[in-house]
Amino acid sequence: MSTLTQLISEIKASLETVLKLRNTKKKKEDDSYVSEGDLLLDGICMDFIKKNYASVQIVTEETYSKGDIDLDATEYTAVVDPIDGTENFVSGLMEWGVGVCIYKGSQFEEALIALPELNHYITSTDLPTEKFDSRIYGISSSLTKEDLLSLEPGFEYRIIGCCMYNMFNVVTGRYKMFQNPKGASCWDILPGLNIAHKLGLDVTVNNKKYNGEFLQPAEKYRFRISN
Fold it and tell me: For the stretch 61-91, what's the b/e string if a residue is b when 16 or more beta carbons lie within 10 angstroms of its beta carbon?
């Protein structure tokens, strides 16, 4: 059983409290929101990881400052997004998620995508068995009007501003494809990229085939996942 499967129980147990924190939003320097719900889940994930991995460094969206991560500094490196889709969360939408990705040295170890309010959970050791055959293409909410007008015609497109939700959809076949041509941070995408890679989907990052590599948090990455 995946170690991260145990984390699902803690996320479920905290959900009622997390939802009560929807109205605690504050603006960060980049004009995005952070809520007390983000910080609560950040602490829950960090505490769990520290208890279950003896030698670990943790990179989270809410605590990362700058610089590259030295994967040799500790046995494990954990990347955490406590609430991906905070704008959705504080607006009362259910499409928000928690993402965790663990590396042992430079090698991918395990990952979790959690959509707590929708009660959907996937780990890299408990992969989805049901697969849909969608023709919908998911695209990032970061696209401009000009980007949208230049999209290739002939496809059903969807825009929902939560990478964990979109990743869940593409790895379960609910989307035929999901892409972000503008760029996203490692905590947004590492869980989904690795689960998709393990499932044998076509995964590219910055127009190169992705094979489970660690992505440094100082950069942003364009990616595409296709069924």
Answer: bbebeeeebebeebebbbbbbbbbbbebbbe
Check if the beta carbon of residue 225 is closer than 8 Å to that of residue 170: yes
Extract the tokens encoding 114. Answer: 């959690």
Residue 131: closest CA among 57, 203, 201: 201
Integer CA distances (angstroms), 30 to 25, 26, 41, 194, in order: 14, 11, 21, 28
User: For each of the chain's 227 residues, which pLDDT tens digit applies?
Assistant: 578 999 999 999 999 999 999 999 999 888 899 999 999 999 999 999 999 998 999 999 888 878 999 999 999 999 999 999 999 999 999 999 999 999 999 999 999 999 999 999 999 999 988 899 999 999 999 888 888 888 888 889 999 999 999 999 999 999 999 999 999 999 999 999 999 999 999 999 999 999 999 999 999 999 999 99
Token representation of residue 145: 């009007």
pTM beyond 0.85, yes or no: yes
Nearest residue to 122 (alpha-carbon basis) of 136, 106, 101: 101
